[in-house]
């Protein structure tokens, strides 16, 4: 995991552009016009102008790059310029980089739609990322940008709007950057190309800038999620001008991005902004870490580290607003992974003042509060394998024998984020160790610890949220939405470069090269990816796009039809109908499993979703 993040950070140094964080709106707007004018072709007939989805591409095409850049007129009258390039399949692909969709008038406040700019916005190069504590990353507050890939369509006489997929990156709400996604390694055009869809990636505020919470309107919490929702409003207004269908928008997220999507599925503020969702490894839940009380405590502790007074909230916010970007990012400790999993970081919360999640998630689910969308969700087999050994390096020692006292100590250390009812850690310990020997081998102990931490932090929050959402939909006789689930089991040698070893199973984020189509490119890092990786990646991308287009995954995984998560079977013996929770296992060969995570995740329900108990006939 650490290696993976450092690798991405290095790529950002080499492939992204930094931005001066002190630039004003007027300076910024002026600079865009200057940059646009530098390469301006005075022969305006050579510019491709799109408005109201009109295309005029009736020429013979010999070289995509010889075509002129494209200008798109937005709903508010502003204009942006993108460039065309050749896709992996030798098709034309328009790419619009770092289009500004929003602005933040006051630090820690809610975002607003970007004001129209004068001149033509040059969207042929990348701007900086949002301020964060990772090394080598630009530290800009002016960072609400969206990247858009649009396949070139020569069939103007039969032009149809394409499905839209919008990707939200992960990173614990403390790091991430869409500039990585604009490089060859993380090229969103790959999915747009393979799936003939419009693909977008969105940047949102991180750390204190995006998640400081004071219980007041000056820092309402979940500001970064408000950024994401604003981007979806921008897409509803403008994506048709890029050939995308605003009535067919699929949100797609991993880790923190997936958690944001789960919040939007039940948030009243996101209703009608998207129609399908793909959640990978993460969901909102009710650990104390996500509560208003813990969020306020973390924010106050952050202010203490910044040497700001905490006796008065307004004075505290004034002090934090006067700190430099560099000071705030240095103190966010974004690269401290244990702090994220111990509930000591500022990230998504329920009960925020801005109304993203006005109540606890399980209470909203119990009330039937949700946005009706089709859903695919899933996780990797060994989600927190790398994190567990990072936090507990003694597990790597294959010589020393561990006792039960050692195990209890390791459990307490690894489960600091699980702040449930009194004595719950003991219940967790007993539940997961009941089948262990008195003196378990290191291999047994480390597998148990990885399973425990993975279940509690990633797997069961995702599994239970999906299960409860499917249950809610099933109670509505007029519902037509469908829910699907998967578990990613395929282990590839490249994962060892990311410090995830075979005994762990695929770890958190290690499926990104497969799921994002990186391994689907035959000429990209052929030494790292196997032919099986490439095959699975191509089939997964076709599955995502089929889901985005039709609302179901289809049978793109070696012809195996992907069943709905909540299915019914005839019970043997009394012939009664019973519920079966079916998941697609992504591995070779692909297969379907029934109730495989059900009982372990049911154990976690009292702390993850306490207000929404349910009876499940399995």
TrEMBL record:
Alphabetical keyword list: Glycoprotein, Hydrolase, Serine esterase, Signal
Enzyme Commission code(s) on record: 3.1.1.-
Molecular function as annotated in GO: acetylcholinesterase activity
GO cellular component, one term: extracellular space
InterPro entries membership: AB_hydrolase_fold, AChE-related_enzymes, CarbesteraseB, Carboxylesterase_B_AS, Carboxylesterase_B_CS
A biological process term (GO) from this entry: choline metabolic process
A UniProt-annotated Pfam family: COesterase
Carboxylesterase type B domain span: 69-574
Name under which the protein is recorded: Carboxylic ester hydrolase
Protein source organism: Dermatophagoides farinae (American house dust mite)
